[in-house]
Amino acid sequence: MRVYVDDEGIREQAQNALDALSEDYEKQILSVLNNGTIVEKRKALQLVLDSTKKSDFFKAEISEKALSSAITTVSDVSSVDSEMISLQLQALRELDKIQWTRSSALLVDFFTLAKQEFNLGLFTENEFVEIITAFTRLASLEAGSYLSTYLGELNKKFEETGSYSGPVVSAVIKNLGGLGNKVAFDNLLYTTYLDYSEVIVTAARDSLARLKW
């Protein structure tokens, strides 16, 4: 049974049929996630998320599998297209909505990939800020060190090129302050010495004050 259809009437019939076949439902979806194209995977995930009969637990599990599949599919970041980006964001938003902290290890992998995709312009600033925030919420134990390292990378880039994304730098700083992990001390402190905007320097100082010792 193929679930990746566009016509709304057929799509609704497919949804009802899959809902009725509870034992086969997951097998059908997993088959698409494992073997389908990116477009098929995205539409299969959307069918699950649109279902009113499936639990949040089931939707989170499928979203986690979809995001994992999306990550492992990427062998070369330069080949990532808009459908892949849509699938990644679709799955991430559901995991964040349900606060699926079981996906913390996966979120580490996704953040690492998303940084590369953002550098290539595949995510907007707002989308990448959304990813940073979700990463912090869903992988709080790991996020501190990764975000601190990333802030160090952003600081180095700013020193070398004079350019930076205000929303992204601010989001990293804000989330580091929210985590309060002292591992961020050196990079936050160094941020205050650089010629960033006053808004960013002030945010770095505020986050420094929130670190837990």
Characteristic terms for this protein:
213 residues; 11 helices; elongated; mainly alpha
Protein architecture, described:
Helix content is 77%, strand content 0%. It has eleven helices and no strands. Helix 7 packs antiparallel against helix 8. The longest helix is centred in the last third of the chain and has 22 residues, at 140-161. Mean pLDDT is 91; it is low at 1-5.
Based on secondary structure, the structural category is mainly alpha
- How many H/I helical runs? 11
The biggest beta sheet reads: none
Relative helix content: over 70%
Mind sketching the topology for me?
Layout: H1 8-20, H2 22-35, H3 38-50, H4 56-73, H5 82-98, H6 104-119, H7 125-138, H8 140-161, H9 166-179, H10 185-193, H11 198-210
Helix pairs in contact: 2-3, 2-4, 3-4, 3-5, 4-5, 4-6, 5-7, 6-7, 7-8, 7-9, 8-9, 8-10, 9-11, 10-11
